[in-house]
Amino acid sequence: MKEPVVTERGGPSLIWLIPLLTALIGAWLVVRTLTDQGPLVTITFRTADGIEIDKTRIKYKSLSIGIVESVSFSQDFSRVEVRARLNKDAAQFLRRDTRFWVVRPTLSARGISGLGTLLSGAYIEIEPGQGAAQTLFVGLETPPVVHSEMAGKQITLIARQLGSIDRGSPLHYQGIVAGEVLGHEMANDYRSVLIHAFVREPFDGLVRSNTRFWNSSGIDLSMGPDGMRLKTESVQSVLFGGIAFDTPDPQEAGDENTAGLVFTLHNDLKSIKDLSYTSKVRFVLFFEDSVRGLNVGAPVEFKGIKVGSVVDVRLEYEERNGAFRIPVVVEIEPERILERGALMRRAPREAFEALVKRGLRARLQTGNMLTGQLFVDLVMQPKSPLKLARVERPEPELPTVRGANFEQAMVSASSIMEKIDSIDLVNIGAELHETLKGTNTLLNGPQLQSSLADLSASLASLRVILRAVDSHAEPIAANLEQTLVAARAALEKSKVTMALVDGAIAPESPLYFHALRLTQELTQTSRSLRNLVDMLERNPQALLLGKPPAKEP
Questions:
Q1: In 109-140, which positions are buried (b, 16+ CB within 10 angstroms) versus exposed (e)?
Q2: What is the β-pairing status of strands 327-332 and 305-313?
Q3: What contacts 366, CB < 8 A, 6 or more positions away?
Q4: Which of 157, 239, 247, 176 lies closest to 208 in space, CA to CA?
Q5: Which residue of 81, 156, 181, 202 lies most exposed, with the fewest beta carbons within 10 A?
Q6: Which region, left, alpha or beta, applies to residue 546 given φ > 0 means left and ψ of -120 to 50 means alpha?
Q7: Whole-angstrom Cα distance, residue 210 to residue 253?
Q8: Burial group, residue 85, by CB count within 10 angstroms (0-12, 13-18, 19+)
Q9: What DSSP string describes 295-362?
Q10: Where are the beta strands (DSSP E) in 74-127?
Q11: To the nearest 10°, the Cα dihedral for 19, 20, 25, 28?
């Protein structure tokens, strides 16, 4: 048996190809993984509420483009750092103005949002921005009201008070929602509030330099001569506040470029109209009446039309004579009065001084009986004396007269109540009670019952008498008629024996006169008897009570 021959093979062994190939494949996979892997982004939030590792997604327009890989604290523990891996094609979204926020169920002025996260869990929304590439971002604590793809114009308003306006409160134009409030902050003077808002397209073209904004929050309830009026912009404005705006007519159009402008937010539309009157003249008034109910801002009216307002009411003490005065400073707006003569073309002070000479006076009147608020009423009373306090003040003085205000009405009412209180109502009530008691005794007593019984018997007897009279009325009338016939026959017979004048009884003879008188009396007697019978048939009680009074025509 031959022995095997062992020879040495030159070159490397093929077995090393396996680990080499494995290393190459591994390196290729690592390179492929690194090249296909998306960018790692770091986002800081105040809290990690709703964020979970390997569960919380990064979404853009409801499409998942990444996932959270880790959550940790920042170095000073003031914020939470969320690291998320995005898809490779999402790297172009990471710019300087890119915004991130956590989507959770939220109740705001715009309604309820994020209800879908109740089942799927919270997620992080991304809004791509512009600028240089960047991987470190500060996340928003609340979702933005306006997204970058929305067309419109951002504006800034300044107000004394924020009121019920909040982030998401609507902006209205002619009752249509035209934008939203983005947020608010304190102004540098710490006395005003800056409100940032967004006006959507196409309403942004209506915002010019002369556009007027006013607070439309809540309910506007007013009472006037035509009753109670209730006005509100919308239910949303009542619940969450709101702002309304308007632009004057095109002939008053302002500049459309509003960049850098800060608009004033007025309290209401009425205050804007009041500010449109720029010419103002101040006068001082001294009233003898109490000014309780007269507040700053109360109107000054002339014949029911507002021509100004009260700007100051205070108490002054004069040490020289120890007297107290209440100067009421009013501001008259001459622009509210149309010019129709040479008088109003003068300077405002000269015009009012001329009106004072003609009888212009001021008085206090009650504007609301429920609240007791007063207003200043200007009237023309040429016959009233000119009473002036003659006090040195910068404002000219307008004379005043006493007016019928609420306090005087209360004094009169109090005087009436005092007179009513002086009446002894207790004794009057006691006497009235005794009178009613006596009346009750009289009505229910035996005397009245006996009198009624006697009256009933008398009426029964009267009925019997009337029946008897009625039964004999016809025979009596027949007898009277027979008597008249016999009398007429007797007169005919007496003609033969009487002295004749041309065959007739002489008119001047006594027989002719007596016969004529007898005939008249018999006729009247018959007529009266018949009237008596007819009256008794209609009113049988006349035998006891007399003839009833005649009815007026």
A1: bbeeebeebeeeebbbbbbeeeeeeeeebebe
A2: antiparallel
A3: 293, 372, 373, 374, 404, 405, 406, 409
A4: 247
A5: 202
A6: left
A7: 7
A8: middle
A9: -TT-EEEETTEEEEEEEEE--EEETTTTEEE-EEEEEE-GGGS---STTTTS-HHHHHHHHHHTTEEE
A10: 80-86, 99-103, 106-108, 111-113, 123-127
A11: 140
Classify residue 56 as exposed, middle or buried by CB count within 10 Å of its CB (0-12, 13-18, 19+): buried
Which tokens hold the place of 101?
A: 């926020």
Residue 330, judged by CB atoms within 10 A of its CB (0-12, 13-18, 19+), counts as buried
474: amino acid identity, one letter: E
Angle formed by the axes of helices 425-444 and 446-497, nearest 10°: 60
**Alpha-carbon distance values, 298 to 37, 304, 311 (Å):** 73, 13, 8
What 3-state DSSP class applies to 60? strand
* CA–CA gap between residue 384 and residue 538 (Å, rounded): 71
The total number of residues written for the chain in this structure: 553
Report the SS3 class of residue 388. Answer: coil
Cβ-count burial of 33 within 10 angstroms (0-12 exposed, 13-18 middle, 19+ buried)? exposed
Longest dimension (CA), the chain: 228
Residues 332 and 400: their CA atoms lie apart, in Å, by: 16
Residue type, 320: R
Estimate to the nearest angstrom the gap between the alpha carbon of 338 and the chain centroid: 30
Torsion angle of C-alpha atoms 166, 172, 177, 182, degrees rounded to 10: -30
Token pair for residue 511? 């027989």
Residue 177 is which amino acid? Answer: V
CB distance 325 to 316 below 8 Å:
yes
CA–CA separation, 196 and 146 (whole Å): 11
Residue with tokens 């009542």: 238
pLDDT tens digits, the chain, 553 residues: what are they? 567 666 666 556 667 777 777 887 877 777 666 666 788 999 999 998 889 998 999 999 889 999 999 999 998 899 999 999 998 888 888 989 899 999 887 765 555 666 667 677 889 999 998 888 898 999 988 888 777 777 888 889 999 888 888 888 889 898 888 998 888 888 888 889 999 999 988 888 888 888 889 888 766 665 544 445 656 666 666 666 788 898 876 556 666 777 788 898 988 877 777 776 667 888 888 887 778 888 888 888 888 888 888 989 888 877 777 778 888 999 888 777 766 655 555 677 777 778 888 888 888 888 776 677 888 888 888 888 887 877 778 888 888 888 765 455 555 666 677 777 777 777 777 878 778 777 777 667 777 677 777 777 777 776 777 676 666 656 666 666 676 677 666 656 554 444 444 444 555 556 566 666 777 777 777 777 777 767 766 766 665 555 666 555 4
